[in-house]
């Protein structure tokens, strides 16, 4: 459970994609350098937090100059491992699975979905944006022959752990889990969960707290525009 | 920025849906009570963390007895505000928007999507699982007449902040944001982000770290099953 020396805290790691996203926006707007103060205002976190976060990776800022946007963008890209290519598959070709295959943002960022697997005969043989839906019986062979890095799991919760463990035993080391259950996997497998319902419940909690604090529900405020 | 006295930390709030999920599973399996130790093993967090978390809400455990599952489930349900009904709309009837309307887990939990809004004439007039897709021009009227609590935003990033602010000015206080951008909203509006690409990047980071540590990419390990 102890972090080893080079290990970066989960909180920092979770913020990296956000830095990457903002720096990408700056690049697109042809902004070549930015101070931690300016970046702080854009990202709505403190400048000191930004400096602290980025120091984890060797502190790319220069006093009086700020950060070189392109350099920092490319460094974070490397740190995130986005300079490499990954093979993805989707397991479960239902609504969420199909939506993810259709999600063009992924392609723009170089994440390529190689195949979809399902048990439903009505889906098998279909293609979604050029990606074929195969029978789940073919998954083992496909995985073993195609060096699959990440499985996107959108299977029913009752099957999620079994599927994840099968995939792990065939060499898939990354699970992006949309099943509404915490999957148990071997130690040498990494998991990132997207528990949509949990996220919505968190929103309801915050909303409910807001309503209670401000007594919103008892009033209407049509004229407040 | 200071927390007020009754405020519970974000970390605890973010764990609550998970407790709720596990307790719901226990209820379904007709388990009526559970010790923090047993719950700890199931949830893979320490028993002391569980006790600490649940103490935030008055400590429902009893020494030698453990937690009453149904009672705790219902208390967390109330804390999350899930004993109330919320009106939801989806703004953006594309892939993710449609998948969310089709996502039956929401209905089972009593989250009801009332309408979908889009600009695309090909989508307007369609129904998705009985939910109508309206022209976005009709959104203001609909929102004002239907006491909408939460807008699920799946619009392009360039439009997300404008849409969120329009909705906020019409009285929508909760934004579940799937747009790949951090939206700026008034202080009396709560936001929960689902940045899918950020989540996937975090997974790539972890995967890359794993590969580097274990030199996986340089070897194949077909015979390790």
UniProtKB/TrEMBL annotation, chains A, B:
Molecular function (GO) terms for this protein are: DNA binding; DNA-binding transcription factor activity
Does the keyword Oxidoreductase belong to this entry?
A: no
Q: Which GO terms describe its cellular component?
A: cytoplasm
- What SMART domains does the record point to? CoA_binding
Q: Provide the binding site for NAD(+).
A: 92-97
Task: For this entry, list what GO says about its biological process.
Answer: negative regulation of DNA-templated transcription; response to redox state
Q: What Gene3D superfamilies does the record tag this protein with?
A: NAD(P)-binding Rossmann-like Domain, Winged helix-like DNA-binding domain superfamily/Winged helix DNA-binding domain
Pfam families xref list: CoA_binding (PF02629), Put_DNA-bind_N (PF06971)
Q: Which residues fall under the DNA-binding region feature?
A: 18-57
Q: Which InterPro entries match?
A: CoA-bd (IPR003781), NAD(P)-bd_dom_sf (IPR036291), Rex_actinobacterial-type (IPR058236), Rex_DNA-bd_C_dom (IPR009718), Tscrpt_rep_Rex (IPR022876), WH-like_DNA-bd_sf (IPR036388), WH_DNA-bd_sf (IPR036390)
Where is the CoA-binding domain positioned along the sequence? 81-182
Where is this protein found?
Cytoplasm
List the keywords (alphabetical): Cytoplasm, DNA-binding, NAD, Repressor, Transcription, Transcription regulation
Chief localization: cytoplasm
What family name appears in the similarity comment? Answer: Belongs to the transcriptional regulatory Rex family.
Purpose of the protein: Modulates transcription in response to changes in cellular NADH/NAD(+) redox state.
HAMAP family, A to Z = Rex
The record's section on NCBIfam families has: PRK05472.1-3, PRK05472.1-4, PRK05472.2-2, PRK05472.2-3, PRK05472.2-4, PRK05472.2-5
**Quaternary organization:** Homodimer.
Q: What is this protein called?
A: Redox-sensing transcriptional repressor Rex
Question: Organism classification, top ranks?
Answer: Bacteria, Bacillati, Bacillota, Clostridia, Lachnospirales
Gene responsible for this protein: rex
């Amino acid at each position: 459970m102890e972090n080893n020396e080079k290990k970066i805290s989960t909180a920092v790691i979770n913020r990296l994609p956000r830095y990457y996203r903002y720096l990408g926006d700056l690049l697109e707007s042809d902004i070549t350098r930015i101070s931690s103060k300016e970046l702080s205002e854009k990202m709505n976190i403190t400048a000191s937090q930004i400096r602290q976060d980025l120091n984890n990776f060797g502190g790319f800022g220069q006093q009086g100059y700020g950060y070189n946007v392109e350099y920092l963008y490319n460094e974070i890209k490397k740190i995130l491992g986005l300079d490499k290519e990954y093979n993805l598959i989707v397991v479960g070709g239902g609504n969420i699975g199909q939506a993810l295959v259709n999600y063009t943002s992924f392609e723009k960022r170089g994440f390529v979905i190689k195949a979809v697997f399902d048990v439903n005969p009505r889906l098998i043989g279909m293609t979604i944006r050029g990606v074929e839906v195969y029978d789940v019986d073919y998954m083992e062979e496909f995985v073993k022959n195609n060096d699959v890095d990440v499985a996107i799991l959108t299977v029913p919760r009752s099957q999620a752990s079994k599927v994840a463990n099968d995939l792990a035993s065939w060499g898939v080391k990354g699970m992006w889990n949309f099943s509404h259950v915490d999957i148990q996997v071997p130690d040498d497998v990494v998991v990132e969960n997207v528990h949509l319902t949990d996220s919505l419940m968190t929103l309801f909690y915050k909303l409910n707290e807001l309503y209670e604090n401000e007594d919103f529900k008892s009033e209407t405020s049509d004229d407040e525009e």
